[in-house]
Amino acid sequence: MSAPFFVLTGGPGAGKTSLIAELARRGFHTIPESGRAIIREEMQSDGDALPWADRATYAERMLERDLHAYSAAQKLSGPVIFDRGIPDVLGYLKLCGLPVPPHIAAAAKATRYNRRVFLAPYWDEIFTQDPERKQSQSEAEATCAVMFDTYIALGYEIIELPRTDIARRADFVCKQLAI
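Structure (tokenized):
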């Protein structure tokens, strides 16, 4: 198990990316979410590997990028905080009602992170949509629930982030990393 690799997961619009940015500002190694980068690239190239078009191809692209990011992170020292992990791809497919290819299930089981996973819960007060985040509030809540279930099923322990400002959330994560 890669003990210094920590995942931040949850539904869309729950403050994960803002928290990752704050942790990076504080000096932590962070890995950005692959899904948003793929969406931007696909929108710019008129591609269809998008969560509202070809979901299976979108999932495959996320897996490919996440495996590459995981491998690249092996060269970093100290804690590395990932904005979503490989199990999120598995959860995404389940959320969409798509079959989970055996290689994705195997990757989620074999590519391990620290057993303690941070979950940004759905938070109505900060949830927003944008051109890359088209999910409704109910979809965001469902995504959070699926990610919780997915990580638990893979043997991880969920640590729910408090619903508070970014600085306090970052302080909370820092304290948890010191435990």
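The longest strand covers residues 5-10. The chain has one domain: 5-178.
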